[in-house]
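Protein Record: Sequence and Backbone Structure Tokens
======================================================
Tokens: labelled as protein backbone structure tokens, with as many entries as the chain has residues.
Question of interest: how does this chain fold, as expressed in backbone structure tokens?

___
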Amino acid sequence: MILDKIINKFNHYMSLNTIHDKIIKSQHSQKELFGLGSIIEQRLINTEDRLIHVEERVEHTEERLKIVDEDKIEDMRSRLIHIEDKINRLLEAELIKYNKKASLDVSPHCETEAFQYDYGIFGMWFTQNYGAALTSYALYKELEQFGYSAVLIDLPQIGGRVDHIMNTPDRMFMKANTFTTEILDVNEANVLNSICDSFIFGSDSLWGGGYEYQLYSLDGILFGSKIRNGKNIVSFSTSFGSWEGTSCSSVEQQYVSMLLKRFQHISVREKSGIALCEEEFGVKASWTLDPVWLLPAEEYEKVMDSEADLPDEFIFAYIFQPLPDKLNMIKYLSDKLGKKVVFVPDLNEEHRRQFGEFKIYDFIYYDSMTVPVWLTAVKNADFVITDSYHGMCFSIIFRKQFAALYPRDGMGRFADIQSFLNISDRINIRSTDEIEKALFRPIDYTEIESILNKKIEHDRDELRDTLKKTRVKYMDTLIKELEDVILAKKILKKLN
């Protein structure tokens, strides 16, 4: 019995221990639960904080979206006005072109700033030089034949003039046969961005004179410094003239390089310009003939003066430097051929002043000619003698027997034509003996024209393709702008 009681008490104590363990475990579990609850509670607090932060970000984002939408709408309004204005100006420009062709009473240079042109042409057509005027005229006509509207940019400072002589023969010819802007100062040239969609830099020594003249006198305008980014810029047969040997700083060189790298295409008139572009400025260039070659003789005949007061038979002498030895060669030629000499200097005032000192022979002297009369003189002459590059070019265009005396300012542009057409016996003539040889070796134009025609066609294709690519790029931009206009109108309609 006693043993049974002891066993029962033992079991009772054991059960108490088990209960105690369970209580301890339960207490431990409760502590864990309390700890877990605390963790959950803290997490809830953190979650609430995050939710508050998210709500603040949502409010901020909504405010930002509201601002962005307002900016977009305002931008669309501005673009809509700009593009509709551009379209109106394009239509007005086409109307002016139509009126010019339809009526002789419409002035071709009236208020061009009000209209939009496909191309603005930089050239030297106002520098009192027959060749400079005709090279710009030829490029203008070629663009016109390709179907583009163009305007010649009037910047007299390029030619070193600020007094704007308005009645010179070159100006009168260009005003009568092309569109030109109003006279602009270099500092006003930014206005061109609102007149022209694209720009083309033409021929003659547009890039001549070196860094000091180009950057400090002209503020880099002939390298496109005034043209806004995003505009299409090309050059065709542009010349560096007397650039060789000009000293420069690396900053000036880098600046011109930067400007030229904005051009979509560059071609130069002299082969030496290719090396200059690549070595000095790090840009590629191709060699193309002066634009005067692009137009056939028949196109120039349309603007000649059929009533020009010229002899039936004559030698035409177009001379920049009326030096005694040159005059002696002209006199020798006159005596050999037994023909009168029609003598004219360049339009430049300095050249004409020099000319007055050398009227020593019985020539028919002209102080100046209109451009149509000058063309007629080259075309109708029995022989042309000149020291002018363009005098030589037009002699070949009109298939004339000619002699090109040594030039005033270097052989570069002459040498390219001399080697290309194999006419070394006609260029850089320095004596009467060489005149004699030229007289008894008439030029055979059959071979020359075969060479020329292939090159002219190649250069015309290059120009056409360049302009086409430029125009396609512009039209893509215009289409994108028109798409934005459509979108802007939809948004504005909803807002209203």
User: Anything to note?
Assistant: Residues 64-69, 100-114 have pLDDT under 50 and may be disordered.
